Amino acid sequence: MKPTDFSKYLTDYLTRYLSHERGCSSKTIIAYRDTFVLFITFMHQVRNIKAEKLFMKSISRASVVEFLDWLQSERKCCDSTRNLRLAALHSFFKYVQYQNPDNLYEYQDIMSIKAKKARKKSLNYLTIEGITLLLEQPDITTKKGRRDLALLSLMYDTGARVQEMIDLTSSAILLDKPYTIQITGKGNKTRIIPLLEKQVKILQNYLTEFGLLKLQARLYPLFFNSRYEKLTRAGVTHILLKYADKARIANSKLIPEKLSCHTLRCSKAMHLLQAGVNLVYIRDILGHASVITTEIYARADSKLKREAIEKAYVDVAPKAEPFWENNENLLCWLKSF
Predict the structure, then answer these.
(1) What is the share, in percent, of the chain residues with pLDDT greater than 90?
(2) DSSP-based three-state secondary structure for 120
């Protein structure tokens, strides 16, 4: 069976272009691959075109829009997920237009599809008291409890993404002053984050107990399960929610019903902002590409807004009450005015 032009372009795009020319991380390539798995599935199930018969001429603006709508109607994807799938398709057709300019108009027509305006969710974060209560929940008399405390406290103190925590190894931690940790984030970009002594003490005890200070263990996962495999995203979320449920019993006002690993990251950002830390430094700690992304925390902090309004407030209200307010017969006063 002769390969189709779509299969040729897609193979070159995923295996050569993204990795060698663009330098994309493996996670980005996997995310883009998953988009095309869904797209091929859609073309087969909805348009009755099998993968081995899928040619570039079979793909049009209409089919791509129908695919995006299918993601939301059939797979219940949110607007943000739809936009991520569209971004992958845009990238692919941007690549293909230089490989096959004969159908340039059709490809550019697909690239002109606009992203859907996604509804912005309000930031979910814990107060300092909420974080304190959460970190009091692990049972530090047990080995697993000490691991969980090290995990959750480090995730909060560094403001790291859950995948960044999963990918950490003990070699990333510098236990000599100045204490730091090296985190690799999106696009394989690394950042150095200072650690406080209290956090270092928790980590040092954890590393010693779990044998992670040995030379041969320097590249082992920093946090692992009972099978010595690195934790998954679901595993870290399970640990967080387990202690969140316990903390909620102690004080439901401090722990919201909806909680995720990203909540700890948001909480760290908000606490830094409330402490007066410059947005540029918060950007560097969180690993944002631009300070514009970090500004969402400043816009979301009602406490800082209230304090700013109170500082700028000028009392323009009259000091004395209008004399007619004490007049029992307002109508008589108005007539005599």
Answers:
(1) 62
(2) coil
Q: What CATH number is attached to the domain comprising 282?
A: 1.10.443.10
Helix (H), strand (E) at residue 173:
strand 173-174
pLDDT band of 123, cuts 50, 70, 90: confident
- Is 248 a domain residue? yes
- Mean pLDDT (whole number) for 299-322: 51
Tell the residue number behind the tokens 């540029």, with chain if given: 280
Q: Is 262 known to be catalytic?
A: yes
Of the pLDDT bands very low, low, confident and very high (cuts 50, 70, 90), residue 249 is very high
| 60-67 mean pLDDT | 96
- Give the whole-angstrom CA distance, residue 335 versus residue 324: 12
Domain count within the chain: 2
| pTM recorded for the entire structure | 0.72
- Catalytic residue check, 20: no
106-143: buried (b, 16+ CB within 10 Å) or exposed (e) per residue?
A: bbeebbeeeeeeeeeeebebbbeebbebbbebbeeeee
Tell me the residue range of the domain where 210 lies.
128-308
- Give residue 314's pLDDT: 46
- 92/213 same-domain check: no
238 is catalytic: no
Q: Token digits for 95? A: 């690549």
Least confident of 4-18, 125-139, 317-331: 317-331
HEC secondary structure over 280-322: HHHHHHHCCCCHHHHHHHHHHCHHHHHHHHHHHCCCCCCCCCC
Q: Is 90 a catalytic residue?
A: no
Of the listed 146, 265, 268, 271, which one is catalytic? 265
> Based on the domain organization, do 143 and 244 belong to the same domain?
yes
| 82 assigned to active site | no
Active site residue 186: yes
From the list 161, 248, 268, 283, the catalytic residue is: 161
Question: Cα(first)–Cα(last) distance of the chain, in Å?
Answer: 99
Catalytic entry in 22, 116, 186, 230? 186
CATH number of the structural domain spanning residue 75: 1.10.150
